[in-house]
Amino acid sequence: MRSTNTIAITGASGFIGKFLESQLLEMDGYEIRVLSRDIERDLSKEKFGHDVKMFEGDLCDQDSLKGFLVTGCVVVNLVYLWNAGEAQNLSCTHNLLAACKAAGVARLIHCSTAAVAGRTANDLIDEETQCLPVTEYGTTKLKIEQDIIEYAKGNFEAIILRPTSVYGIEGEPLKKLAADITGGSRWKNYLKSCLFGRRRMNLVHVANVVAAILFIIRYDASLDGEIYIVSDDEDQKNNFFEVEQFLMDAFGVRKYPLPRLPLPLGLLKLLLIFLGRNNVNPSCNFDSGKLQKLGFQRPVSLKDGLAEYATWCRPLLLADKASKAP
After folding, report:
1. CA-CA distance, 148 to 108, in Å (whole number)?
2. Which of 66, 81, 159, 297 is deepest in the core (most CB within 10 A)?
């Protein structure tokens, strides 16, 4: 098990990474190391706290990782190269795994995605559900998971976390919906609400994802090779209609003049297939029960998370709308 309290983070400048770093800095007893491709640039943008040790390196260059990892540390990998393709993402993963083995790390926590489930027909997806991804993103993420678990055997612990759609302040999943509500066409919004109103959103707050990472960091027993879904899908209001209505109320946007006429789920599934979506089952939920059985508890409810997001987002959207007014 761990012999140090050193946490080494790759991808710390991303959405989840920044939240994780801020949480770790509030906790005593941890040495935080982050990998940066350009330390001077990141320092100038004040991306990281003063108590963070920065190491310049690139996962594409295995030699540059020397010195970043130490014996007994816990590694949190949050990196995915969006425009690099499968081969380069797998290559970078292998470089990190080799560096983990050489340094003798204790545990690697890899943040993957629930999107690896792909086009499964199951309404309730857990860690045992057969994954059927159809997009390059989903298939690449699944191959990365498989390579990590296989390589880590006998070398160090590897744990995979699969969060669903991660939202929160500065997050992407709700940006378009929020912008459409405050500045889009009312009729287009109404039609979209009829189309997607009954579809599950599968949102999970970034604080809950980071809490799961911290929980695994501190968990004493061996979890080698385990996979855990991180979701807020137990909340029945985690669907398009309820989330849209919550944001409309929070932004002071009046209700639609006509009642919503939800598209039958069978037709919605065909539409999602036509649109090329990875997950085409509008009723699917992701089960986080396995993680909760270990003792994990979510710190943020869906309602509180949406309220926080709306409070942050509303003045930005109103200012943007005012700037575009004639």
Report:
1. 9
2. 159
Q: Do residues 59 and 10 touch, judged by C-beta distance below 8 A? A: yes
Tokens of 105: 């790390």
Grouping H, G, I as helix, E, B as strand and the rest as coil, residue 124 is: strand
Q: How confident is the model at residue 3 (pLDDT cuts 50, 70, 90)?
A: low
What would the mean pLDDT of 223-242 be, rounded to a whole number? 97
Do residues 182 and 253 make contact, with C-beta atoms less than 8 angstroms apart?
yes
Identity of residue 72: G
Under 8 Å CB-to-CB from 24, ≥6 apart: which residues? 7, 30, 32, 214
Query: What ranges in 26-108 are assigned the alpha helix state H?
Result: 39-44, 86-103
Instruction: Write the pLDDT tens digit of every residue in 206-216.
Output: 999 999 999 99
* Whether the predicted pLDDT of 106 surpasses 90: yes
Burial (Cβ within 10 Å: 0-12, 13-18, ≥19) of residue 130 = exposed
Q: What is the DSSP letter of 90?
A: H
First to last CA, the chain: 63
Q: Where are the domains of the chain?
A: 6-167+203-230, 175-200+236-281+300-320
**What distance in Å separates the CA atoms of residue 26 and residue 53, rounded to the nearest whole number?**
15
Backbone φ and ψ for 6, nearest 5 degrees, come out as -90, 130
Architecture of domain 6-167+203-230: 3-Layer(aba) Sandwich (3.40)
Sign of the alpha-carbon torsion through 151, 38, 113, 277 = negative
Q: What is the CA radius of gyration of the chain?
A: 21
